[in-house]
């Protein structure tokens, strides 16, 4: 089980929340481009809390040597895995000649993977789509996986939708191309020696269990972000751990303690951390007001602990754990 890399969402604060909820789920960073690391602020992009382990860095790029250099940075900073993005369909990413358009160049991806593997000891993995544009030929993704696997990649995470490179926004690319889970299951049958995980549209224990009967892993995206409390069941449901006695109140308190540490150590305002936990009480009585308090910019001048007390106070209403 893993939480997908999501731009503007799965930053280190979001990952800290997710780790409070599940000890074992693999967490991914937002995609970080090789250019951002080579020419930008490495610490800003790569800093993370030790509690986040296991955590993987996702890279965007298409130059083997640049990717090798950034993979070494990932290893030096303590990441447990480095992942190459071959699935993002945005036009901005395409202009950089990486993301989903790389599926049209499997040998280049193989060269990138080999350069990265030669540079590091941590696993190098690939996240990709099952096709490009409207072509739904299984042979396309089969040959892509086969070529990249020959370079030594043993783990593939397949978003079970095609990527349309023109005509759809990134959001539409997550919704309009049909989900075809059977393609990912076929990849596992054709490459039984590889680790194959599926991503896309999975939002319940039942759906995850159904896929885990066919492939090796499941990656969850938007549902994990908007309904993070779901992760509190993952260790029991999917990792064979005892049922957790964790409560939402405890998670909120732990996040406030984290906000206080971040403010003291890095000058981070609690407001930029709190945005990631707004779905924590989804579906509970009083959740709307709780969410409104934590997202109220007028309260930015208050300490996080006082905001928590305000969020929990509503005459006549008890916020259940």
Automatic annotation (TrEMBL):
Binding positions for FMN? 5-7, 58, 127, 159, 199-201, 221-222
**SUPFAM superfamilies referenced in this protein's UniProt entry, alphabetically:** FMN-linked oxidoreductases (SSF51395)
Q: Which CDD domains match?
A: DUS_like_FMN
- Provide the alphabetized UniProt keywords: Flavoprotein, FMN, NADP, Nucleotide-binding, Oxidoreductase, RNA-binding, tRNA processing, tRNA-binding
- What EC class does the entry list? oxidoreductase
Q: Which InterPro entries match?
A: Aldolase_TIM (IPR013785), DUS-like_FMN-bd (IPR035587), DUS_fam (IPR001269), DusA (IPR004653), tRNA_hU_synthase_CS (IPR018517)
* Enzyme Commission code: 1.3.1.91
Q: Which Gene3D superfamilies match?
A: 1.20.120.1460, Aldolase class I
Any idea what job this protein has? Catalyzes the synthesis of 5,6-dihydrouridine (D), a modified base found in the D-loop of most tRNAs, via the reduction of the C5-C6 double bond in target uridines. Specifically modifies U20 and U20a in tRNAs.
> What's this protein's name?
tRNA-dihydrouridine(20/20a) synthase
């Amino acid at each position: 089980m893993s939480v997908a890399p999501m731009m503007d969402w799965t930053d280190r604060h979001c990952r800290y929340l997710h780790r409070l909820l599940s000890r074992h789920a693999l967490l991914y960073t937002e995609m970080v481009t090789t250019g951002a690391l080579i020419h930008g602020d490495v610490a800003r992009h790569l800093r993370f809390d030790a509690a986040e382990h296991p955590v993987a860095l996702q890279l965007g790029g298409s130059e083997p040597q640049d990717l090798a250099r950034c993979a070494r940075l990932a290893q030096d900073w303590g990441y447990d895995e480095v992942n190459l993005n071959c699935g993002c369909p945005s036009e901005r990413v395409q202009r950089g000649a990486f993301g989903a358009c790389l599926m049209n160049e499997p040998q280049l991806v193989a060269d990138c993977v080999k350069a990265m593997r030669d540079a590091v000891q941590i696993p190098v993995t690939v996240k990709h789509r099952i096709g490009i544009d409207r072509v739904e030929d299984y042979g396309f993704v089969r040959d892509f996986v086969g070529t990249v696997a020959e370079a030594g990649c043993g783990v593939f995470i397949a978003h079970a939708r095609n990527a349309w490179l023109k005509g759809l926004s990134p959001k539409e690319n997550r919704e309009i191309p049909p989900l075809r889970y059977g393609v990912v299951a076929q990849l596992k049958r054709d490459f039984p020696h590889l680790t194959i995980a599926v991503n896309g549209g999975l939002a319940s224990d039942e759906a995850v269990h159904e896929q885990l009967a066919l492939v090796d892993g499941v990656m969850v995206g938007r549902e994990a972000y908007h309904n993070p409390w779901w992760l509190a069941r993952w260790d029991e449901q999917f990792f064979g751990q005892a049922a957790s006695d964790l409560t939402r109140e405890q998670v909120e308190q732990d996040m406030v303690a984290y906000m206080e540490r971040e403010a003291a150590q890095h000058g981070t305002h609690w407001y930029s951390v709190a945005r990631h936990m707004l779905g924590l009480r989804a579906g509970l009585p009083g959740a709307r007001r709780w969410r409104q308090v934590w997202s109220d910019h007028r309260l930015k001048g208050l300490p996080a602990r006082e905001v928590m007390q305000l969020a929990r106070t509503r005459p006549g209403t008890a916020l259940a754990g």
